[in-house]
Structures are given as C-alpha cells and as structure tokens.
C-alpha cells in the first residue's frame, strides 16, 4: 500500500495535490511573456502552462545547459538560436568545439568558418583595446592553458616581450590604439625573447629558453593559426546572422581553448565598447558547447562574462555533458539553467548543491527522456516560489535531417583548392532523395542507402558512400550521374573509383 502511494507521487495529479500548499511552478506571469518579445520553449509539466523565455525579469541573459550525450543540449541550443533570430533578429556565434554544428548552420543559411582550414586569428589583435589590457588577457589565456603561472620569471619575461612587441609596432601601451596600425604577432614576441637569449647578458638563460618553448607550440610552421595576420574580422562575424566558428580542425584541446578564450575576449570588448542599448531583445548569443577548459577555469572570460551579468547586450550559452566542467560561479550566476537528463550521482550532487533543488526534482531529472527538462531561473526580485520547474519537453523546430558527405579523405588540401571543391557536402534529406531519384536510382535502393547513412550518424566519406552504392547494386553509370549532380568533377569521380577499386 505504502509502496503504491510512493509511486503514485510521481503522477501529475498527485504532484499537484502534494504541492497545493507550496506551488511547484512559478506563477503564469513569470512563465508567459509577450510572444513577440520572448522565446517559446515548451509546456510546463504540472500545470501545463506554456513557458516563454525572456531575460527582462532575470538577473542576466546567460544560460547553462547540462545533460548527458543525446539528452538534447544541442537541439535546445539550435531551437533557441532560431527563435531568438525570428523574434529579436539576434545574431549568433557558435564556438563549435567538435564541428558538430557545421552541417546545421550551413543548412540554416548561416556561415561556417573553419579555423585551421585557411582562416587565421591573430591573438594579438587589439580590436580597439589598449595594448596593456590585451597583453594582460594574452598572459591570462596562457595561465589557463599552460603552466606559466608556476614560473613567475618566465611569466614576467613573456609579458615584457608581449608589451615590447606592441611598442615596436608603434603603439603606446596605455593608449587607445590607432586602428590603421598593424598588430604584432606571437612570432614577434618569440623573436624578441630569442634576441635576448642571443645577447647572452641575461642571467637565467634557461628561463628564457622555457618561455620561448612555451610560446613556440602556438607558432610552429603549419600550426601558426594564432600567430599570423588575422583573416577574420570577429567584430563583423558577431553581426552576420548565424555563424559557426569550427575549431575541430585545430591540432588539440589547448589550441581550441586558446581560440575560444580569444574569441570570447574580443567579442566581450566589442560589446563593452558598443554598450547596452535600449532596444529590445539580445543583439547576439555566443554559444560554448563542450568547451570544458574555458567553462571550468575561474580565470576564464566565460566566468567573467556571466559574473558581469547584464553589462553586455549579448547572452552566453554554456553547454556541457559534464556539469563539473562548468565552474560553479557560472551556475550560481547565470539567469537560466536548463537541466536535461543527468545520469551520474556525482553530477547530480554538484547540480543540486549549486542550484539547491528538492529531492523530488532530483528524482524527476534522473527519469528524463530526450528533450525533457528542468529549468532554474534567477529572478531579479526575490520570489515566493521554487525557482526550478519541469517542462514536458523542449518543443523544437522541425528537426532537419542533414547528411554530410566528405571528400577530404581522397584529395589533399592543394587538390581541393585547385579543383575548387569543398571538403564536405551537406544535403537535406529531401534534396538528397530527389538527387538520387534524378540519377535513376531505384526506390528500394534509395531506402537502403538512407538506412546505411542513418546507421553512420548521417556522416560518410565519399568512398564509403560509393561502397554503399555498390552494395545496393546501383550501376556504375548511375553512380557517376549522381556524383556529377553533387557537383564533383570527373577527375574526382575517377579518383573515388580508384580508391574503391571499381
Ligand atoms: N526536444 C527534442 N525533441 C525532439 N528531438 C530531440 C529533442 N532533443 C533532442 N532531440 C533529438 O535527439 C538527438 C540528440 O540530441 P542532441 O541535441 O544532439 O543531444 P546532445 O547535444 O545533448 O548530445 C538528436 O537527433 C535530436 O534531434
Ligand atoms: Mg551536443
């Protein structure tokens, strides 16, 4: 008898009754705002009230999104960005750690910028900042990413060389920079340290050598993505609609983190200079998905931006499958936390400790299916109701089925450029199907092709793709016809067939 009661507690009806004295959801006026000035997220679980998000009554417009892989974090982010763009014309920059947003951004008419694939960022660019402040930020990034803080003398030498390199380019350290002057690069900084070493007068050459070595890892030939003149204008990108900055091609995590930190710093500066304007909505949203080092370190700009609250007219979304990768200061300061399915007890403990929700809520979160969520909001005024509530499901835009076909494996960068072909091709399911039909491929064969593509997460290289065609007994003639319809030249098609041995 008692057991049954405990189980029933989970049902909506009983939950309503149990909470009659203490309402389990914020009242309507806190959940539902003017639909032309807020973002619809979903329907609340207990009172079935529509929930629309706005930051007007929240402490700030920033969000944290957590949940295990597959729980629906990226789905939430995409839905949120699309609606913010409809409602407020909000621009978005996704710092795309694993390249997982690329296909969707292309599909949605946005811009994909791939660092390490021909695009560079000079981390010494000033974008309006005083050289002294930028120098501090650069050292701050190295403190987060390297062991430099353990070596005060190396830190001092590096700082001095960074500052000197600005002076050598004609800048005044504490002055507003002349935008026409060119910023130095990390290579200039390294040269200064090397000159000092060669002079032979400095008492601790080993310190110099180590300082040089540390910087060189970011300036090696072929890996000097942040040590060259920038090819990108971050200021422009933040007002260019939907943009994914793909970091997946960078050599390792420290490169990705350096890029992410630099991008955050630059965008923050730009927003600071523009100031908070009275227009409604958010000018921009910056997304950090699975950027663990950047979200976890106390000294990171992600933490600073969230701490600084409503100072900028942009929102930061920090998403992670591992809540302990998100600094506690982010949870305790963000205006909104979206909790999707959480599995591990230690993550749940961390969240419950940071956000202070009930054990009832804890049990609900652990039972979530895809897209179900608990939401925590921090209101500007003190409120008499629990700040965490449940929504039935994040109601998304109709999911797009995007298929990615890469040709990068059979052609090198040089060949790609010479033949002017992309490394990856993206197709919406409907388009891919019609191309297959136009290439006279049978309906059964088409179903088989999609089945195999879906098995591989809708990503395949061109070689594997042609192998699937062969397996489905598509004729060589029709295969060629299809590959041509993709826009591939005969040279490339021949190459594919050589690889699959057909
Ligand atoms: N609220 C939702 N409604 C419908 N489908 C969803 C929802 N959330 C996620 N999905 C689907 O579930 C899959 C995993 O979601 P995703 O956002 O990639 O998870 P995560 O980023 O947390 O790993 C995707 O195919 C996505 O389209
Ligand atoms: Mg994801």
Describe the structure.
Helix 6 packs antiparallel against helix 7 and helix 8 runs antiparallel to helix 9. The protein is 44% helix and 13% strand. It is α/β, with parallel strands linked by helices and 502 residues long. Strand 1 and strand 2 (50-53) form a beta hairpin. It folds into three domains: 22-119 and 232-391, 3-Layer(aba) Sandwich (Rossmann fold), CATH 3.40.50; 131-216, no CATH class; 402-500, no CATH class. The longest helix is centred in the middle third of the chain and has 22 residues, at 253-274. Residues 1-10 have low confidence and may be disordered. The strands form three sheets. The protein has a nine-stranded mixed β-sheet with strand order 5-6-4-7-8-3-9-10-11, sandwiched between helices. A three-stranded mixed β-sheet has the order 13-12-14. Strands 1-2 form a two-stranded antiparallel sheet. Bound molecules: adenosine-5'-diphosphate (ADP) and magnesium ion. Magnesium ion binds at residues 73-74, 100, 289.
């Amino acid at each position: 008898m008692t057991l049954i009661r405990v189980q029933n507690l989970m049902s909506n009806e009983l939950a309503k009754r149990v909470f009659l004295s203490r309402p389990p959801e914020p009242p309507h006026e806190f959940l539902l705002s003017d639909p032309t000035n807020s973002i619809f997220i979903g329907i609340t679980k207990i009172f079935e009230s529509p929930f629309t998000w706005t930051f007007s009554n929240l402490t700030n417009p920033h969000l944290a999104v957590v949940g295990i892989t597959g729980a629906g974090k990226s789905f939430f982010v995409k839905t949120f960005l699309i609606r913010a763009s409809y409602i407020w014309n909000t621009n978005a920059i996704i710092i795309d750690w694993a390249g997982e947003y690329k296909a969707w951004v292309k599909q949605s008419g946005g811009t994909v910028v791939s660092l390490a694939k021909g695009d560079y960022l000079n981390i010494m660019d000033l974008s309006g900042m005083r050289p002294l402040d930028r120098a501090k930020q650069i050292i701050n990034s190295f403190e987060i990413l390297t062991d430099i803080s353990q070596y005060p003398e190396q830190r001092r030498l590096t700082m001095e060389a960074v500052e000197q390199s600005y002076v050598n380019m004609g800048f005044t350290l504490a002055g507003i920079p002349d935008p026409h002057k060119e910023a130095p690069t990390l290579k200039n900084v390294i040269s200064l340290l090397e000159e000092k070493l060669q002079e032979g007068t400095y008492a601790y050459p080993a310190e110099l050598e180590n300082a040089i070595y540390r910087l060189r890892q970011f300036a090696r030939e072929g890996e000097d993505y942040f040590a060259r003149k920038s090819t990108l204008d971050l200021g422009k990108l933040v007002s260019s609609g939907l943009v994914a900055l793909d970091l997946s091609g960078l050599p390792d995590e420290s490169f990705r983190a350096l890029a992410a930190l630099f991008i955050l710093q630059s965008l923050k500066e730009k927003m600071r200079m523009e100031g908070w304007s009275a227009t409604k909505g958010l000018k921009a949203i910056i997304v950090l998905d699975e950027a663990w080092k950047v979200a976890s370190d106390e000294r990171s700009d992600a933490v600073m931006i969230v701490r600084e609250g409503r100072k900028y007219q942009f929102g930061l979304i920090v998403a992670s499958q591992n809540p302990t990768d998100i600094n506690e200061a982010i949870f305790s300061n963000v205006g909104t936390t979206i909790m999707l399915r959480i599995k591990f007890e230690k993550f749940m403990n961390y969240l419950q400790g940071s956000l202070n929700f009930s054990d009832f809520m804890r049990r609900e979160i652990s039972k979530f299916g895809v897209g179900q969520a608990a939401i925590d909001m921090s209101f500007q005024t003190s409120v008499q109701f629990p700040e965490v509530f449940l929504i039935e499901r994040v109601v998304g835009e109709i999911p797009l089925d995007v298929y990615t076909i890469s040709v990068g494996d059979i052609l090198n960068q040089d060949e790609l450029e010479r033949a002017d072909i992309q490394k990856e091709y993206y197709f919406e399911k409907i388009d891919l199907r019609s191309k297959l039909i136009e290439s006279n491929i049978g309906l059964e064969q088409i179903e088989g092709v999609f089945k195999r593509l879906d098995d591989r997460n809708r990503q395949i290289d061109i070689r594997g793709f042609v192998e699937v065609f062969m397996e489905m007994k598509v004729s060589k003639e029709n295969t060629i016809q299809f590959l041509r319809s993709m826009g591939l030249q005969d040279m490339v098609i021949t190459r594919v067939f050589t690889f699959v041995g057909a």
